[in-house]
Structures
1.
Amino acid sequence: MTQSRTGWTAKFLAVVRYEILWNIRKKKFLGMLVVAFALTTLVLAGGHIVRAFGGPPVEPNPDFVISANVGLGGFGFFLFAIVTAMNTISAEFESGTIVPLLAKPISRTTVFLGKLFAAFVTLLATYCFLMVYMTIGGFVVYGPQNNLHLVPLSLLGALFSTLIWISIVLLLATLSRSSLIAALGALGVWLGTTIIGQMLGMLAGQGWILTYIPGFGSVGYVGEAPPLGIAVSTGTDSIGPNLINYILHPSWEVTYYKINIGGHTPGQSWTALYSEPLSTIILTSIAVALVYFTVFVAISWYIFRRAQVTE
């Protein structure tokens, strides 16, 4: 049994090494670092860019780093999921390398898990680089920062937020065996959950639906009604910031509102719907992310195992 485990571990690590080297040869990892650097630089320089066009001066912000969500928003998580996963499986079929790969004495399950783990390692390395750069840049641009010990929660949240999109991209790529279809299909899902979802939440007062859909989620407010209250995004894209807010403000109650068409004064143009603790929002979003990831990855694994491979 020990030899069997050792043999499986060696095969698994061989697949991981193969995938990581493939990512390096194809410049995927380098590309992710460049994109991460560019996006983070844009976030850090945003205040100065606005200032250059006549905006207000850049003021010190000691909470910039812990509120920046690793420098990425929902589209950033989606973009990294696309780059990380869209050709993890499908590229093997498109290039024909799936034939010699599966001809080796390695089970399809080992190949699938090795590729998935390699994608996670690549993503983790990119986000660690991004987190360090964001922390240093925030200190340089906005002055000394508070609560830097909470920054790892941003990293954890970013991984959760991205893994759910990776599972969606991976499922589409395994079904279609096409990187292009996987990217376009995932983009359609992202646009649908972002645009249509926000309309349901703000205009129809059905924001609870977004609780069970990946993405930005519904928006609630702490304290006062919008636009005076503190906005809190409740979706899977905001797990990191919500974890940090919970550590800092464990008693927060988030209230959801429906816009009142025809209202003109703040506080009267919105109707309060219901409230819930921030802790409930966090647990729900994490559970939703885990369920989507587990289900979609399991389906992808099943399809990959059953896929017919021809010369």
2.
Amino acid sequence: MERSKYFHIWLGISALLIAGSAAFFSVFGLSKLFAGAALSVVVMAGSLELGKLVSAAFLYRYWSAVSWFQKIYLTTAVLVLVGITSAGIFGYLSNAYQGATIEFEKQSTTLTYKEDRLEQLEDDKVYLKDELEQSIASLPDNYITAKRKLREEYNPKVLELNDQILDVKQDISDLKVGLVQTGVDVGPAIYLARTFNTDIDSVVKFFIFILIFVFDPLAVMLIVAFNQALVLRAEEKNSLPRQGTTVNSEKKKRWWEVYGERKPVIPKIKILNKLKKESKVEERKLGKGGVPIEEDI
């Protein structure tokens, strides 16, 4: 079956991009985990990522030539490094998710507090009005001046509560607008959480686990596939004839072999005629009586 001439190039580019992306996310994820020595972790993790890919390629190319100890150790090392890379990717994506949702969660908490505060202020306002009405009702009808003084005492308190309620309502409105703007970043997660009747964190963890189970293992397998394509391509090139030469796997067939016939047998008559011609030539050279004819010089 004819293979694409440039497929191995696309395979190599794909393997390089996926492996490079996995290494980038893993290295920076591990550097966030060990923030105290970020540069050292980047160098160490980057070296391990390169060693993992080279080890996978080495195992494919020289599997039959190395000892069982090397096979077991290198295979174990590759699998462990795949796990470490996946953990680094998980850390990187978790940090990115927390960075996107921390403001959302902060605003949600503040909004809950403001709503509780608004409810408390409204209850205080109702209680204050009820207290004012009860105080006025307890006075006789002819105590007009006393009733007016009571109203004057309670009015500033009511006005102060009204101002506080207006401020809290304004804060709540601003927080709701901010939540709409911030929720755009995590909107799909919020929608999925509502669809499956769960919280946002569970949805995000589920998707991160799916990504890490596919990401780095796919990168390693593509590296192996790329080496396989190179080996097969090299074998095909070695089997092809060199430039300027022709391949004759079989001897050049003669005309009777082309048509599936046997080698023709020369008739005896032709042989006898050939012998007669040769004898006549000899007689001419000898002359009569068997005496050689002298040739003119």
3.
Amino acid sequence: MNSISNVWNHPRTSAAGLLIAIVSIAAVFSQQGVTLGTAGSGTIVTLASAIATALLGLLAKDPGSSQVSVSSSSGTTAKLGAWALIALLLPLPFIAGCSGARGVAQDIVNWTPALQSAVATVDSTAALLAPADAPIFTAATVGFDLASNLLVTHAKAYLANPSAGTLAQIQTQIVTFQQQVNSALLKAAGISNAASQKHALAAVQAVATIVSAILALVQSISSKAAVAQMAAQSTIKLASVESYLDRSQAAQMVAAHYGESLAVARMQAAQGTQILRMEGF
């Protein structure tokens, strides 16, 4: 009964919750390829999401009835404004600003300096580890240089001559790289020396952040069949390595790369990880 009475006593809050739910469900449907039909050049799902987001924005700006105090109205409006921001961010892929496979390929190339720097850090990390741990770490990360170079090469090739074959190469290479990174994280976590483990995990985490960002980007422009195939090739799932990842570090890297706030980067990183898990990675 309390839940039902709350709906009537707080209609704006209830309406906001319903609109956020619509936007969230529409985002999931879009990621899964569910359209529910077409609406002009778009789909019913995207139209519903756009309408719900617009209504939420109007609701957030509504000053409310005259019976509500100024302080109460301001507090409610502020909360609804924050919810509107979250709803606007939900439909975005892992990183905002990319449209289509060509845009993703360009973004992969744009990640090159950070990726090369992270891989270079991995290459130099073995010298910081205990003598018994260095060979383990080196063996776990030996393929990083080749994997990163191949990924960037395929992305540049796609930019120069877009084709389904080149896109398939990007899809295969990012999954291969992701699996190498996930394997390295597990092996780094297994190092018993505390100091060595800390250095090893920190180095691999930086590469993992970039690889996860690129994987989410590639997933966002891949067909449902291609995503299913990519996920099937991902035998070491994110759930197995998530506990070893530094979310704060990931958000900082994403924010620095895209020139955005930590709050936005944190939301995007969290959503990207959730989508990848839902897709079977």
4.
Amino acid sequence: MRRIAGPCYSGFVRTSTLAPAKVNLVLRVGNLRHDGFHEVSSLMVPLDLADRVDVRVGARPGPVTCRVPGRPELDGPGNLAARAAEGFRDRFAVDRAITIRIDKKVPVTAGLGGGSSDAAAVLRCLTRAFRVRDARAVAEIALSVGSDVPFFLGPGPAWAGGRGETLRPARVPPLHLVLLFPEDPTLAIRASEAYRWLDASRNGPSAPLPRPRRFATTLLGNDLEPPCLAERPVLSRFLRRLQSAGAAAVMMSGSGPTVFGVFENRRAARKAARGLAKEVGRAVRVITARTASRQPGVTSWRSPRSASSPSTRRS
């Protein structure tokens, strides 16, 4: 445990940032490791679809609280964002009260990394507020919360290895996507379920994982997709609808159940989304999104007691 100083002034600190969703353009899954996780080779890319995360650090000791307006089932200590804050406090001996508010835009349990991104957003905000420069320690906290969290601490698209913590920057051209997320809770897929179905479908050890250096559309693919489609056949119908709407490529993101199609440009994606929305009805959320080349930054903190103080200006 490393003790650090509190914020640079006596009032409370408020920071804010966006927490983007992601898609896996490539997800190859290797064998089960001794720690219970699978070895992966994945290309993850952030999207312009994002939650907004506000973090307030109190001037006095207190608990971590987390609220998601409109989604009370996500409130409280079980939220990955709250777990990230607790991990930060434990690692750096912080006792200040921390209040987290998440304006949720990314679908939940969708294979889009929304919860992991919220957790990373909280870590980025707290790192800024407390001026922590120990990136390795923060990355360790992130990994303890979830395998995808370290990716959202990085600068942008990345190849991920190990269980997801070994990251190499990737260059991915802007892609215009249409995502279909079924709202029916009976179609939800937990990551643990998807990996279990994959293991059950395999005969013997998996082939060695590829380690590509550059992105190409020929690499698109998700090893979790076939077993998930076998368990959730309706997802195959959504993939076919995306193809019929003109998608150049279609696949499932992460552990699903969100599926997406890649379109030639924004106009084509929006046109396809309008048609698909009429076809699939209200039970399926239709989202247009664009891949991003950078993760969003954290806003400069501001103190109601000293909005123009020298320390605020320097930040």
